[in-house]
Amino acid sequence: MKFTQLGRTGLRVSRLCLGCMSYGTPSWRPWVLNEEASQPFFRRAVELGINFFDTADMYSLGVSEEVTGRALRRYARMEEVVLATKVYFPMGDGPNMRGLSRKHIVQACEASLKRLGVETIDLYQIHRMDPHTPLEETLAALDQLVNQGKVRYLGASSTFAWQFARALGVADLHGWSRFVSMQDHYNLVYREEEREMLPLCEAEGIGVIPWSPLARGLLAGSRKSLTDRTSTTRAKTDAYAPVLYDQPGDWEVAEANRKVAEARNVPPAQVALAWLLSRPVVTAPIIGATKMEHLEDAVRAVDLKLTAEELQQLEAPYQPHALRGM
What we know:
Radius of gyration: 19 Å
Shape: globular
CATH class: Alpha Beta
Order of helices and strands: EEEHEHEHEHEHEHEHHHHEHH
CATH topology: TIM Barrel
Structural class: alpha/beta
CATH architecture: Alpha-Beta Barrel
Number of helices: 12
Distance between the termini: 31 Å
Strand content: 5-15%
Largest sheet: 8 strands, parallel
Strand order of the largest sheet: 9-8-7-6-5-4-3-10
Number of domains: 1
């Protein structure tokens, strides 16, 4: 496994991040693996050299954090692991069980620490921006967590570039800890982040850890068409994928990816990940794995180098989208 720095920090992370949304309880989503079925994936990820793991409090409503924490304490050396989680989405019906108020951030962080079984979270991320809470309140609360030693680094996910730029500026103005990473929606099928967010991250030294690098399976080669909802368990139940990927050009990109993969005699997922890894600003795509070959293929993509001709073939069919995933 290859390693790189997360943005301008001194933190070294593997070029792939294992996303742990797939591990928790199937009562939350039918495609999620329970704890027993999840264990081999954590063990193999550590064996393959992955040291970067991402979850969120809302995944399986906390169970993902519990499963992730127990597995990493069992299979990994925690001082070498970079453990990331997120806060924002509802964790209950109460009015203070969501958002980015000081109250919810502090309480959510303490709850995540308990579920993960650690004293400090390496990378604590806001899952979205909260339009109902003053930005200064959110940033001050996050800085407080860093100063208390409960969090080492701060990250953000899926927001508008102007909002992220404002957050960086406000943090700098007050001398607060600033965000060091952006977890955004970016893949071959959806490249709108190239307009504003990625140039901003490059200029500000922000690490980029894209979610849905395979476009929710569209770039994995398992679906027969853009509207296919039967090929996989997730395709049958994923109501979000049709919202993200619904224009004819999306399938043309998937087909271009498949053709390059066939010519290379590798799975389509490897080509899609290799393309992302070829982007200079990308630190580590967040991969999901519910079959062991998913994990093995992803790791092989780290060493797959695409030619200029292949890159052009992959990028040519792309058509601009409305902003998605915010």
